[in-house]
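Q&A log
Question type: sequence-to-structure
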Amino acid sequence: MDMHKEGLPYTMLAHHNDFTFVYGSFAGLDAAKREITVAAVQADSGDVIVPQRRLGYAKLCIAVGSTSHYFNTPGVQENTISLNAPGDAERFRQEMLMLMTWAESRADEGEQTGVDVIIIGGGATGVELAAELREASNKYIDYGFRRLDATRDIRITLLEGSPRILPPLPERVAATATALLEERDVRVIIGCRVAEVGPGEVVDAAGRRYPFQVCAWAAGIKAPAFLATLGLPTNAAGQLEVSSTLNVIGSADIYALGDCAACTLEDGRRVPPRAQAAHQQADYLYRAFLRQPRTGQQTSAPYVYRDYGSLVSLGSQTSVGTLMGSRQASAHGSCAEAWRTSCTSACTCSTTAPCWAGCVPAGWQWPGR
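Response status: OK
Response body:
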């Protein structure tokens, strides 16, 4: 995917959704004055385009997401690409195109060649990346790579340190995902703990070596480091500690949500760093912020996380995962019976339409949404 064709700028989103977008990085917080600092914006030449600014707030919601966690593994930051932002994805795409051009030129000279791609981390991000890379193989000819054979010359290896990929999901789902990846000629290696990443080579704890031309890191996340400099309470992972109403502990007018927030539920469980959790938290705060001007009171009802399951895409026509929710929702297709009979059944669909279309009736909404 070309981000320049598919992406939407924040300025356009702001225009269509009635919010104000301020260009610049979050550079500081003065909680006593209820102000944040927005860093200056500079051109590549160093010239200042927009100076540093200070913005006042009545309520501040911090939703800065997460960044890659390298676990102090030598060489990872220098020799891998982490998909933290659109720019990283664009860098990965350009790197793949350059390597495929190199492989094509070698093939023109009659050499046996190819591109070795290593993906470290068998969670949802790594699994989806492996599947999308393989599915894109039928597009290579559109870029003029007529001598490359997708399965022979683009060699994809997925490394996972756990005994199976997709550790948070049921074992049957992980087994199905593994089988589907292997059918697509993706090599899946489990129980592989990466000890070091050098230029062009991954070394695991057992001393095995895996050569590569491009390596993607998808083995873990942590909160952005700058959060620890704001004077707000953080946990060992750098996340902001929040209450059951998503207030940052000790700050009545500062909130946090998503991956950067450490929210403990009443039963002692932590809210997982997943998109559906951030979506639910945003809905909760939206309603709370609207309620306060009408009632003059802060919301007292705690945030409650509801797990509606997870679906992992294995290309445009296949998904695996779990669906959890209403037993009374009607459904059809390969996972219909599982949906009707159990709230925690595994969904392993391979359909001619996206999994959502085969599992959820048209117009149906997730419970509680």
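Response note: The longest strand covers residues 115-120.
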